[in-house]
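**User:** You know discrete backbone vocabularies at least as well as I do. Would you mind producing a protein record, from residues through to fold? Write it directly below this note and I will take it from there.

**Assistant:**
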Amino acid sequence: MTRLCLGFAAWIWILASFLVGCATVRPVPGSLVVPGSDEAAAFVWKFYGAPGPVPKVRWLAPDCTKPSGKPGVRDPFGRCKGGWTITDGIVTSIWIEGGTFSGDTALAHELRHAAQLRWNTPIPHHVEVVPAEDLCGLVALAPAVAVLCERHRRFLEVVDEANRMLSERNM
């Protein structure tokens, strides 16, 4: 009987977690309302040809400085980034007041990650131990690395193209 009750309690907990945690998207503290962001996200999502609804975008004000000297936001692990994507339904990006979607945010980059998650083809180019740029210098030592480097290069090309198209539309 105890085993049955524990099983039943576990199912209730899972169901409650799903209904409370997954069915509702709560804004994170400090989230910003950014006019035009829905249109910009929809444009990029359509450009990528990604399936399903456009992910929700959480905009955060800068709270740190990245190693490049540019402003950033802290990810869930405390690292200073331009944005991050953990699921295909929500992306997080920096928003700089007076900035543009194409030049001052990680919108196109993070939406590309979300699209890859929808396509089940994530590109592991944010390996903290060895950044992709450094890893690609090792192609001569490990030819299999060439495949990852080519995927990373293509990823960046597509994101750059999305940002260029946003810029042409004054977004």
